[in-house]
């Protein structure tokens, strides 16, 4: 058995060979990309532009690798057997970028550096896997034998190791999912919260990777359930990138524009380019289906449930169309709404989105953009039930779904009874459904996780158990302060943020319980001199200190959270009050500070504080 120092020395030789090659290759790729763009400008042909974008992406990936000094995170050394019984050896590296690479070694051999998206990288996700399904294109890239008429390769023996690179050299090599993996996850959690999702292939655990690499063709509905911080969003995006057909097209659906903007940048880096994947918020999708309708400028906030069920709404639309066969779609919608008791509105807002998405297939409207084979729905518990009925009417059984969500974050505007009704709306057979509970929270530290789970079990004593990783780099801290005046709140918030910033914490959310109270606090906190980004649902979170509402930060993460107005009026002793506080707590990776403004005789702290602050 080769000792660790020799293994590390050999890996440094390979890493040095990669660096030497990358430094020579990068300027050549820049030249090729410039020439490709020059040609595209000259002939202005779509194929030429696509080629230029591909060449540019190849340059961008290698540049990112070189800057980050992370050309790979794992090694696969294996003995394979082809269908005709021929055996051959494999020794390659795996990186967390999109495109596989080949670089020369000093002894005239070549090293394959494959993407985590490649079928062979299933061995990194599950080193015990005994069979791989490879395309002929895969085999051609690997320069492997192509005998037989089946793509299956048997794994005779496999050794998978994590490789740790620090300061431009390899410092450790260890078995997969061992000490290097845990240290890697811990270091990732120590970083400041980012304003966008990242490619996290190197820090996904066994349980998460088993979900990602499940290629069961019969599976039409995968529900990723579990508490905040378990990686549901990351797993959903990575699963489609890994398991879906490379030619398949799909939609990533989110409840708000802010969450859409959080997801959108990572899709191309996962191989889900614009031509095959599109991220939509519900409001954005409804606008694209009905562009001629008079939409309000402000479509922020959550899309509420429609006050009518689909039968009542459908009957009203049918009735109006019979009575007024020449009416426009706009006139039909408005008249149907009035017949159902809706007050007429000049402009349409988020309260119209669910109904208009359902009306799309009723009116045989064409979908904007691509015809999807798969749909990921993030924060699925926050999507109105009528939207799920609309998806069935639009796509029937032609689409597979991944739903990522947590019923504890359902919100007060969505009170339907969980996953069962969603399954019924999508009309998926039980044999085609997999409902998984992810129990291990990485992002939420132990103290905050424990408080949030006390809220969960207070309203649902039979809830599934979960845990925060014991080796989280920060224990988490929750503090509470009742105050008697606005001026005291202003001073407390200013001092707290100054203190947090001195600790190096920059990603901070100040959360108001509603849009009305948000407008109030925008005015009140303006006098503090704190530089704030006001996030109302249309914008992207750009980092720093943000003032917003609970609904807008669903799916986002921060290092510190300040929760305003933690009183009984905003967070009553109801399940929706507990769920709102749960959502706020679990946005934080380090600190939570709760403020209750008790400036009147009818003001009292939220009863749920007893569950949160021990």
TrEMBL record:
Origin: domain of life: Bacteria
InterPro entries: DNA_helicase_UvrD/REP (IPR000212), P-loop_NTPase (IPR027417), UvrD-like_helicase_C (IPR027785)
Name of this chain's protein: UvrD-like helicase C-terminal domain-containing protein
GO biological process per UniProt: recombinational repair
GO cellular component: cytosol
All residue ranges annotated as the UvrD-like helicase C-terminal domain in the record: 546-595
GO MF, one annotated term: ATP binding
């Amino acid at each position: 058995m080769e000792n660790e120092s020799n293994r590390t020395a050999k890996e440094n030789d390979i890493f040095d060979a990669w660096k030497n090659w990358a430094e020579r290759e990068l300027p050549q790729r820049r030249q090729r990309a410039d020439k490709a763009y020059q040609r595209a400008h000259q002939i202005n042909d779509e194929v030429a532009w696509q080629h230029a974008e591909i060449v540019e992406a190849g340059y961008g990936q290698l540049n990112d690798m070189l800057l980050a000094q992370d050309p790979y995170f794992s090694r696969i050394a294996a003995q394979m057997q082809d269908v005709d019984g021929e055996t051959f050896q494999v020794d390659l590296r795996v990186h967390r970028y999109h495109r596989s690479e080949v670089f020369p070694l000093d002894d005239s051999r070549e090293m394959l550096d494959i993407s985590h998206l490649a079928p062979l990288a299933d061995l990194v996700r599950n080193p015990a896997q005994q069979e791989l399904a490879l395309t002929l294109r895969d085999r051609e890239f690997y320069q492997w034998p192509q005998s037989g008429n089946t793509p299956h390769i048997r794994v005779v023996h496999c050794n998978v190791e994590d490789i740790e690179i620090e300061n431009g050299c390899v410092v450790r090599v260890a078995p997969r999912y061992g000490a290097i993996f845990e240290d890697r996850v811990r270091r990732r959690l120590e970083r400041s919260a980012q304003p966008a999702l990242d490619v996290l292939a190197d820090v996904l655990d066994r349980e998460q990777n088993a979900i990602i690499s499940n290629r069961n063709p019969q599976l039409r509905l995968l529900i990723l359930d579990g508490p905040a911080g378990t990686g549901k969003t990351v797993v959903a995006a990575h699963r489609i990138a890994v398991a879906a057909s490379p030619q398949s097209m799909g939609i990533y659906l989110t409840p708000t524009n802010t969450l859409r903007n959080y997801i959108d940048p990572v899709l191309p880096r996962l191989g889900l380019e614009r031509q095959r994947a599109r991220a939509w918020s519900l409001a954005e999708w409804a606008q694209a289906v009905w562009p001629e309708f008079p939409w309000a400028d402000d479509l922020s906030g959550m899309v509420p449930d429609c006050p009518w069920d689909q039968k009542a709404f459908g009957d009203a639309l049918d009735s109006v169309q019979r009575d007024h066969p020449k009416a426009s779609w706009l006139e039909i919608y408005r008249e149907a709404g009035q017949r159902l008791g809706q007050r007429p509105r000049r402009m349409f807002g988020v309260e119209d989105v669910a109904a208009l998405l359902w009306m799309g297939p009723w009116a045989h409207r064409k979908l904007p953009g691509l015809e999807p084979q798969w749909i990921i729905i993030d924060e699925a518990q926050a999507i109105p039930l009528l939207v799920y009925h609309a998806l069935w009417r639009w796509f029937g059984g032609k689409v597979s779904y991944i739903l990522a969500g947590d019923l504890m974050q359902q919100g007060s505007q969505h009170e339907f009874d969980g996953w069962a009704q969603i399954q019924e709306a999508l009309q998926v057979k039980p044999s085609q459904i997999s409902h998984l509970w992810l129990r291990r929270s990485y992002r939420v530290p132990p103290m905050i996780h424990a408080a949030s789970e006390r809220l969960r079990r207070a309203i649902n004593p039979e809830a599934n158990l979960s845990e925060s990783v014991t080796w989280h780099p920060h224990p988490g801290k929750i503090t509470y302060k009742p105050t008697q005046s606005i001026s005291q709140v202003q001073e407390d918030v200013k001092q707290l943020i100054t203190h947090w910033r001195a600790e190096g914490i920059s990603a901070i959310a100040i959360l108001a319980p509603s849009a009305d109270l948000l407008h109030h606090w925008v005015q009140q906190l303006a006098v503090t001199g704190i530089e704030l980004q006001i996030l109302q649902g249309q914008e992207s979170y750009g980092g720093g200190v943000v003032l917003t509402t609970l609904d807008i930060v669903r799916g986002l993460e921060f290092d510190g959270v300040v929760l305003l107005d933690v009183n009984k009026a905003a967070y009553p002793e109801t399940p929706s009050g507990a769920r709102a506080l749960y959502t706020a707590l679990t946005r934080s990776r380090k600190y939570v500070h709760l403020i209750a403004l008790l400036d009147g005789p009818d003001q009292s702290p939220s009863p749920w504080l007893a569950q949160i602050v021990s």
